[in-house]
Specification:
Blueprint: E1 3-6, E2 12-15, E3 18-19, H1 25-35, E4 42-43, H2 44-52, H3 60-75, E5 111-114, E6 117-120, H4 128-137, H5 141-146, H6 160-186, H7 190-203, H8 208-220, H9 224-241, H10 248-259, H11 300-311, E7 317-321, H12 328-337, E8 347-351, H13 362-379, H14 393-401, E9 407-413, H15 416-419, E10 430-435, E11 446-449, H16 455-466, H17 468-472, H18 475-484, H19 489-501, H20 507-514, H21 520-525, H22 530-540, H23 544-553, E12 560-561, H24 563-570, H25 574-586, E13 591-592, E14 604-605, H26 608-620
Parallel strand pairs: 7-10, 7-11, 8-9, 9-10
Antiparallel strand pairs: 1-2, 2-3, 4-6, 5-6, 12-14, 13-14
Length: 630
């Protein structure tokens, strides 16, 4: 049975060349989700969310298994040596486009269960998206474009998981189409390509490179007045929809057409800024990102939200906030690795604090960023002097950002004033900031709150480190272990590293250890003081009243408490207690549920690691000084 799949247009399944009914709507959604991430693991959580959005039934996991079984019958086994069967891919299902892998054994199951998710294995000859990539890479651009039958996965764009993958495919189509059109113009075939270029440009009216190529084709045909009208239409659309003018490069190209006299050249030379850089120089774009966390787990919704903000229109500024140990930096880095296609001018990463935890001077931060851009520019095709050679680093940084589309990850901010000088004043670059405080004074920022893991995510993370077989042998104890850490990624990582070392200790025995007399931090950190140092820094930076409040709250029997209980242990009136607790909420040292309620009914919670630290300190500190706010 030869099965072929198509996602470059409406979803279709062909068996021996004949169309096959892919089943119910939910089974089609599942098939579209797996095909759009072919040969890549998609977590079960992501698939459940795709199928039922925010209201999954109690039996969602069981129903998912039923739909997978139906797809296995529909799709059949893998068909031969051109198939692909990669190992499990890290991530949440928000990742790279469908990709090929090494050949599997013929007849292997096409949909396999791997590390808490599912992989649909398919070969280049079986999925049109993979054939498109293969032909595009080989330079067969016309053949690649002929595979498209419409908008990718048309009919499923209301499912966020599928829509994000379909948007990537659409952007890839545009890139290949522009390369094809550029090649047609170079060969003097612009007039023959005008109709197709105009049709594509009408569907993507804000794509400046495409518009420039359309104008060039019109000029080749001697239709300069129409080319000028295209620019005027684009200028009005940009102003109306985005409040932006055309890029300086496109404006210069327009002026060159206005001033051009005599017969039109076969192909007006477009500005270098609007042409794709020569392929040998593609690596010149700076990439300072740390390694993508290999055991990154779950987080489908925050990854999707962050990607949407960073690749959206105006206001591409995101602040990832959450308690110490929530995995803010890992989320930002993981997402940035998946957005390379959106930011062709580079992805930069800079920490605002040194190894000692002290703030780095702004000029040091800027010089680090400019040093990376200088290396890229010296290696790049333009030959222009690097921005880093300018005497004023702030002006040089803004100069570099102008006209570029780069992604900047700013790690561990504590104050708005640390971030503002790094934000682009013009251009299409995006910035993601990680911070424990909410940075509520940062105008126009989209905030992505990062909660602890879900229980399933935490157990999955644990299994990735100590081995899924060890976890599956005693899942109840595994769940109790991760709950003891408060489900914080940092705590789960510490306990996972500890158990990976203690290979001889059964999980049930380790549960008893965590409930014994030894403190949680002693058990997790061993002789490494770094976690305690970071906890001490997070508390030590607070105003005096809030600092003392954290230590007093550590004397509570449980990390979850009400306002009345807090006021009693803080030895102050409820009004003062509310203001102190809100200071701690702003610093992400406390959390509350999303449900609204009266002040006296709100339940506050201190993250597990901070609570363990506060309990240690509360046991050593006698402090009965009344709490005052200044």
């Amino acid at each position: 049975m030869a099965v072929r799949f198509g996602i470059l247009g409406p979803l279709h399944v062909l068996e021996n060349g004949r169309a096959v009914d892919p089943g119910s709507r939910k089974q089609q959604i599942l098939l579209a989700a797996l095909l759009s991430h072919a040969n890549t693991r998609v977590s079960a959580d992501s698939l459940v969310e795709a199928l039922w959005d925010d209201a999954p039934p109690r039996t969602a996991r069981k129903n998912l298994q039923v739909y997978v079984s139906g797809l296995r019958r529909l799709a059949g086994p893998e068909s031969g040596p051109d198939g692909s069967c990669p190992g499990p891919a890290a991530g949440s299902g928000i990742g790279p486009a469908p990709r090929p892998g090494p050949a599997p054994a013929p007849g292997a199951t096409r949909i396999s269960h791997q590390a808490g998710g599912y992989v649909l294995h398919t070969a280049e000859g079986e999925l049109d998206a993979l054939r498109f990539e293969q032909r595009a890479r080989a330079g067969a651009l016309t053949e690649a474009l002929e595979l498209w039958r419409g908008s990718a996965l048309d009919g499923f764009r209301d499912v966020p998981l599928i829509d994000s993958a379909a948007q990537r495919l659409d952007r890839r189509f545009l890139g290949v189409f522009e390369d094809w059109l550029d090649a047609e113009l170079a060969a003097g075939r612009g007039p023959e390509a005008i109709e197709r270029a105009t049709e594509t440009a009408q569907r993507h009216p804000l794509r400046e490179r495409l518009r420039m190529l359309q104008m060039t084709a019109l000029c080749q045909a001697g239709r300069r007045s129409e080319a000028l009208a295209v620019y005027d239409e684009l200028r009005q659309t940009l102003a109306h929809e985005l409040g932006l003018p055309p890029s300086p490069a496109l404006a210069r190209f327009y002026r060159s057409l206005l001033c051009e006299a005599g017969p039109v050249q076969a192909r007006p030379a477009p500005p270098a800024e609007l042409r794709p850089p020569p392929r040998p120089h593609r690596s010149a774009a700076p990439n300072l990102l740390p390694t993508d966390p290999p055991a990154f787990t779950g987080r489908a919704a925050p990854v999707r939200r962050l990607a949407e903000v960073l690749t959206g229109g105006a206001g591409r500024l995101a602040v990832v906030t959450g308690p110490l140990g929530a995995g803010k930096t890992a989320l930002a880095v993981h997402t940035a690795h998946r957005l390379a296609e959106h930011f062709p001018d580079g992805r930069l990463f800079v920490r605002l604090r040194g190894e000692d935890g002290r703030p780095r001077p702004l000029d040091d931060v800027l010089r680090q960023l400019l040093a990376a851009t200088a290396c890229a520019e010296r290696d790049g095709p333009t030959g222009a002097p690097p921005a880093a050679e300018c005497s004023d680093p702030r002006w040089a940084w803004q100069l570099w950002l102008t006209g570029r589309r780069a992604l900047v990850v700013v790690d561990d901010a504590r104050r708005e004033s640390e971030v503002r000088p790094l934000l682009p004043e013009a251009g299409e670059s995006a910035v993601v900031v990680t911070a424990r405080p909410g940075l509520i004074g940062l105008e126009g920022a989209h905030r992505v709150w990062l909660p602890p893991f879900t229980a399933d995510e935490a157990v999955e993370f644990l299994g990735r480190t100590i081995g899924a077989e060890r976890v599956d042998a005693d899942r109840e104890s595994a769940a109790r272990i991760v709950r003891a850490t408060g489900l914080l990624p940092l705590g789960v990582r510490l306990v996972a590293d500890r158990l990976a070392f203690l290979r001889h200790v059964a999980l049930g025995e380790y549960v008893a250890r965590l409930g014994g007399g030894r403190g949680l931090l002693d058990e997790l950190c061993g002789g490494d003081p770094l976690v305690r140092v970071r906890l001490a820094e997070s508390v030590g930076e607070l105003p005096e009243a809030a600092h003392r409040a954290v230590l007093r709250l550590g004397s509570l029997a449980r990390p979850v408490f009400t306002l009345d209980r807090a006021a009693a242990v803080l030895d102050c009136d409820p009004g003062t207690a509310v203001r102190v607790l809100e200071d701690l909420l702003e610093a992400s040292l406390l959390t509350v549920s999303d449900a609204e309620g009266l002040a006296h009914t709100v339940r506050y919670e201190m993250p597990a690691l901070l609570y363990a630290y506060a309990r240690e300190r509360a046991g050593r500190t006698v402090d009965r000084v009344p709490l005052h706010l200044h």
